[in-house]
Write a structure and sequence with these properties.
Blueprint lengths: L2 H15 L6 H18 L4 H10 L9 H4 L4 H10 L2
Helix pairs in contact: 1-3, 2-3
Length: 84
């Protein structure tokens, strides 16, 4: 990950840590690796795609913890809308 992306990553960490449905730090790091591989094989603008990958789950920081872990169908639907 290049310098400018590292800065975005560091700024995103506190928000990713607030996500409780899964380990969003580990998940996002894996998605970054996958995107880097994809960018080596296909065309794409890393200046758009890498920041998008880093930020794609930061919205979970706005979802209350109890809702993040709910299995109730109506609550899960609400959660999915909140995290956007």
């Amino acid at each position: 990950m290049e310098g400018v992306f590292k800065k975005i990553w560091k700024l995103a960490i506190p928000y990713l840590k607030k996500g409780k449905r899964k380990d969003f730090l580990l998940h996002t790091a894996g998605v970054i690796k996958a995107m880097e591989l994809l960018l080596r094989q296909e065309k794409g603008d890393p200046n758009i795609l890498i920041p998008a990958v880093i930020l794609h789950d930061t919205g979970w920081s706005k979802v209350p913890r109890d809702l993040q872990r709910s299995n109730n169908k109506s609550k899960v639907e609400k959660v999915m809308k909140l995290h956007l």
